């Protein structure tokens, strides 16, 4: 095994008396997509906030490419692209302006930024939108711009928190497919947080959490076999009691 892109070991989290996460451990290797699945209130956002350092780690260890998140914050975050659940694009700036601003924050030269913006938009099938204000784009296109932004500094680990929320079925499928191809082509590690079973594929790694506890972890097909389930829907219901 190579060094994991992301390693989470025995992580727990308390919100003043309420335990949101209890002893969660998992790894993501370069080129792997791990689907973090769980019903509402399972602890997905808490875990995401710990990995992105929005919350401070209370218990356990989080490492990105072998570097402790607690000790080398800047170094580790340089390797990470993040797409949050809520859009953080400036609606009154154009696509290019939003991306260029992010590039500047990462110390990327204007020349390099221009080149990367063109490449990423081409890749996302958005080249005609470069001078369009975000406000004029539909939800699916805005999400694609957010992915392009997260990729501007060429991260090796991409973290997405419920990136498809609010999108129609076609846009959801397209986005999911796009992230999968990035994962394969760039050998990028991906954490895909979702509460939607249909966004998960048999070749994915799966971490199913419920009420802060890890209920199942491993290659999707292995997890199904271990729990004698034919479908993820069945597994989800068996382990969480929740319906999809
Ligand atoms: N700031 C907070 N203070 C107290 N409790 C919190 C706080 N944030 C979350 N919780 C609780 O922690 C648990 C996990 O919440 P979290 O938001 O991480 O779950 P989730 O899986 O992301 O759910 P959802 O899909 O609904 O966003 C829930 O019981 C929630 O009520």
Automatic annotation (TrEMBL):
Gene3D superfamilies: P-loop containing nucleotide triphosphate hydrolases (3.40.50.300). Belongs to the ABC transporter superfamily. SMART domains: AAA (SM00382). Pfam families: ABC_tran (PF00005). Keywords: ATP-binding, Nodulation, Nucleotide-binding, Transport. Signal peptide: none annotated. Coiled coil: none annotated. This is ABC transporter ATP-binding protein. It comes from the Bacteria. Residues 6-236 form the ABC transporter domain. One of its GO terms (molecular function) is ATP binding.
